[in-house]
Amino acid sequence: MGRAPCCDKASVKRGPWSPEEDEQLRSYVQRHGIGGNWIALPQKAGLNRCGKSCRLRWLNYLRPNIKHGGYTEQEDQIIWSLYSSIGSRWSIIASKLPGRTDNDVKNYWNTKLKKKAMAAVAASAATGGAFAAPATPPPALSPAASASSSVTSSGGDVRFAAYPPQHHQGLTMRFDAPAPQRRQQHTELAPVPPAAAVAQLDATSGVWARQPAPASDAVAAALDDVFLPDLVGGGEQLFPYGDFFGGLQDRAALELSACYFPNMAEMWGAAAASDAKPQGLCNTLT
DNA sequence: AAGAAATGCAACCGCGGCACC
DNA sequence: GGGTGCCGCGGTTGCATTTCT
């Protein structure tokens, strides 16, 4: 007993969109909006397409101000940093990159950026670069986790220090990790150390510890640009760390990470205990 | 020049969340 | 409180294009 299909796949057109279909959808949405119902939209717009297909086409291609390709170094840094913290939550990552879609970011990561990351790690390993490279998730998630002192680029849960790896070694980046648990499994989400917070796994205690080392200037500037506007409201300086990422200190890291990179395991665990939605998540993440 | 392999990306698929009844 | 249907997400697929041999 599976879910009923959203549309009759045999009777709707599939595959690439023609310019005529694009124009039909674009003009309909511009005139009427999506009307809160993608399933009904194709019929109203006179399109022989599945509603989901229309939604995807609009969101990923026809929507105004969409950018394709031409990723900047700053965007690379943001993607790297966010991926290290929250994994493949492409919609969240894309929401921090104006004009980018989750699909586009995902494709960009899978086809280019991941390879770039692997190459950087391989190069660093070859030159004896020092990377924190735990082969398993942090102990808070996996009690059996053990620290590894070596870096491997041959697949699996490989982590490296940061973007660019040779410049700051505090951040932990999972570029080849298994996909994180889906949303409904928040209690099992890896409490990967916040990208902002510089963390290293203590091989003796098995505890992730924040380090006072600052992020590189480039990464700090990129992250400041992206996140601080959300934290500074209406001319009033609500968030006291104007150069937060550039001057990472424990308290600041904790405050921002609590907002953008909350410890999911703790939060959702507490939420499960109280049978309530977790509190404290930024709107941008929920 | 032609075929093979690699790459890039649009589109599809299936699932879970959530709102509504 | 349970059922239903839509939305949004992340993973995967398929195909066109580019590069290599």
UniProtKB/TrEMBL annotation:
This is Uncharacterized protein. Gene3D superfamilies: Homeodomain-like. Residues 9-62, 63-113 form the Myb-like domain. The keyword Ubl conjugation does not apply. PANTHER family: OS01G0685400 PROTEIN (PTHR48000:SF20), OS09G0431300 PROTEIN (PTHR48000). PROSITE patterns: HTH_MYB (PS51294), MYB_LIKE (PS50090). One of its GO terms (cellular component) is nucleus. Its main location: nucleus. Keywords: DNA-binding, Nucleus, Repeat, Transcription, Transcription regulation. InterPro entries: Homeodomain-like_sf, Myb_dom, SANT/Myb. The gene is LOC101770921. Residues 9-66, 72-117 form the HTH myb-type domain. One of its GO terms (molecular function) is DNA-binding transcription factor activity. It is found in: Nucleus. The keyword Ribonucleoprotein does not apply. It comes from the Eukaryota. It holds the Pfam family Myb_DNA-binding. GO terms for biological process: regulation of DNA-templated transcription. Coiled coil: none annotated.
